[in-house]
Write a structure and sequence with these properties.
Layout (H helix, E strand, L loop, with lengths): L1 E3 L1 E3 L2 E3 L6 E6 L4 E7 L3 H16 L2 H4 L2 H30 L3 H10 L1 H10 L7 E2 L6 E9 L2 E5 L5 H14 L3 E5 L6 H6 L1 H6 L6 E3 L4 H10 L3 E7 L2 H13 L3 E5 L5 E4 L5 H13 L11 E5 L3 H13 L19 H17 L2 E4 L18 E4 L6 H4 L6 E7 L2 H9 L3 E2 L1 E5 L3 H10 L4 E4 L14 E2 L2 E2 L12 E9 L12
Parallel strand pairs: 1-5, 8-9, 8-11, 9-10, 11-12, 13-14, 13-19, 14-17, 16-17, 19-20
Antiparallel strand pairs: 2-3, 4-5, 6-7, 7-23, 12-22, 15-16, 18-21
Bound molecules: adenosine-5'-diphosphate.
Length: 492
């Protein structure tokens, strides 16, 4: 088995614990790589190294244009290695090779975009209310950023954080999910070649409590950029608040995908099926609640079931596989337990409903694409994030009812609206409480378009030009151009 050390200060280091843990391939259920089990001391070393790189040495001496150039070079190197990195991700998270290749070939765009943006950040001259002063603002980096990432799209979600953070001039300590560390460790090999000085990007590996939390609590980390579950997000938010740290939290969802009777039905069926079964439902934006207008409900459900039944399951490295395994054993068990919860709540099982026993699934952690109808929005299956291939279908009468149901959850990440009525599309997009609304499409993301959550789905925005300001702080500089500095003890 290949053994992976951690990357700190441009060197590969072994964990202080002397311990290693196994990374599993969800398709075979077998371990395939050994990962360093980092702890608080490793985190401390990495953070101090990143802090030194932030305060001394070549990185803070570089111009923003030079930083941008290095970021663009990194983009080129990722592009060259995209297919190889995609394969590492599939071996770790079991997502389809076609999707991961697509993602990895898209990832360079984040480094190009934010690389280009690096030297376009500028302050302002303030037309001050006081005579004899010149006042201007400048944006400055925060310092050491701790980036903590999940297992579903490791290098894409790393890019969302790294590209703006580095463009802004920060240094980074990155901790990938303990379930999918390999692609990040392979990616970081490109950092030196791109031209980043040692210590600017560091990777520590291990478990959330053992190495993630010490990163959050460390006095020298100034921002925590996190994607993961809302449970962990809450813990991180509370810990970060104690030291007044900035946070970017991209958390869960229970996104409504809403189909009106005037929609292009074929498109809506395709959108609903890919909204929940793509990536085996393991995306924070999964369209896990499908709201269908009553007048078309039954016919729509039949069409959806017919399509969902055709999904080919199997080896995620095969190009013709359409639904892969669940990434982790605990997640597999969680998905199955939610299926039981839905059954017990009285939802009507229409498809799937358990582990996949098809021969092509072997010993992998597969769950059959599962569809429930007759779901009431107050049921747990409609309120809680499953993060798996489980769809809850809820009927509605009209626009007002659709909105009431759509917004009646504590999450607010994404939402889909399927209609041919432009007025309705705009009304819905105004009233749905979520960070993204897709009309007649679903799951689209871009490096240019802001992404983030309303309500319990998170704090801050990633992507889009303003994302760089999430990694900057504003300074106001006052210069006396002729105002008298009088004796403070002489009253005037
Ligand atoms: P999941 O349960 O789906 O794996 P998590 O939100 O727990 O999702 O994990 C996302 C990332 O957060 C992972 O890198 C994980 O190691 C990390 N993490 C988990 N718990 C903590 C914690 N208490 N403090 C810091 N990081 C954590």
């Amino acid at each position: 088995m290949k053994k992976y050390q951690m990357y700190v200060g441009g060197e590969w280091i072994s964990p202080k614990s002397g311990e290693w843990f196994e990374s599993f391939n969800p398709f075979t259920g077998e371990p395939w790589a050994l990962i360093a089990r980092g702890n608080a001391q490793d985190a401390d070393q990495a953070i101090r190294t990143a802090h030194t790189a932030f305060t001394e040495g070549p990185w803070p001496q570089m111009t923003a244009s030079q930083r941008g150039q290095i970021l663009r070079k990194l983009g080129d190197l990722i592009a060259k290695n995209a297919d190889r990195l995609a394969e590492f991700e599939v071996l770790d998270n079991g997502k389809l090779i076609a999707e991961m290749r697509g993602q990895l070939n898209y990832v360079p765009q984040w480094y190009y975009y934010f690389g280009g943006l690096a030297d376009k950040v500028q302050g302002e001259v303030i037309p001050l209310d006081k005579k004899g002063y010149f006042n201007f603002t400048r944006y400055e980096p925060l310092g050491v950023v701790a980036a903590i990432t999940p297992w579903n799209s490791p290098l894409l979600l790393t890019a969302w954080k790294l590209a703006p953070a580095l463009a802004a001039g920060n240094t980074i300590v990155l901790k990938p999910s303990e379930f999918t560390s390999v692609s990040t460790l392979e990616f970081v090999k490109l950092i030196e070649e791109a031209g980043f000085p040692a210590g600017v990007v560091n990777v520590v590996t291990g478990f959330g409590k053992e190495v993630g939390m010490p990163m959050v609590e460390h006095a020298l980390t100034r921002k925590i950029a996190f994607t993961g579950s809302d449970t962990t997000g809450r813990i991180i938010n509370e810990a970060a608040a104690r030291n007044f740290k900035k946070v970017g939290l991209e958390l869960g969802g229970k996104s409504p995908n809403i189909v009106f009777d005037d929609a292009n039905i074929e498109d809506a069926v395709n959108g609903a099926v890919s909204g929940i079964f793509a990536a085996t439902g393991q995306t924070c934006i999964a369209g896990s609640r499908l709201l269908i207008q009553q007048s078309i409900h039954d016919a729509f459900v039949e069409k959806l079931l017919a399509l969902a039944k055709t999904a080919k399951m199997g080896n995620p490295l095969s190009l013709d596989t359409q639904v892969g395994p669940v990434t982790t054993r605990p997640q597999y068990e969680k998905v199955l337990s939610y299926i039981d919860i839905a059954k017990n709540e009285g939802a009507k099982l229409r498809l799937g409903g358990g582990p996949a026993t098809r021969p092509e699934c072997g010993k992998g952690w597969f769950v059959e694409p599962t569809v429930f109808t007759g779901v009431d929005n107050r049921m747990r299956i409609a309120q809680e994030e499953v993060f798996g291939p489980v769809l809850s279908i809820i009927p509605f009468k009209d626009e007002d009812e659709a909105l009431r149901i759509a917004n009646d959850v504590r999450f607010g990440l994404g939402a889909g609206v399927w209609t041919r009525d432009i007025g309705r599309a705009i009304r819905m997009s105004e009233r749905i409480q979520s960070g993204t609304v897709w009309v007649n499409t679903y799951r689209a993301v871009s490096y240019m378009s802001p992404f983030g959550g309303y309500k319990d789905s998170g704090v801050g925005r990633e992507n889009g030009a303003q994302a760089i300001y999430e990694y900057l702080q504003l300074k106001s500089v006052w210069i006396n151009t002729g105002a008298a500095t009088g004796n403070p003890f002489v009253m005037r």
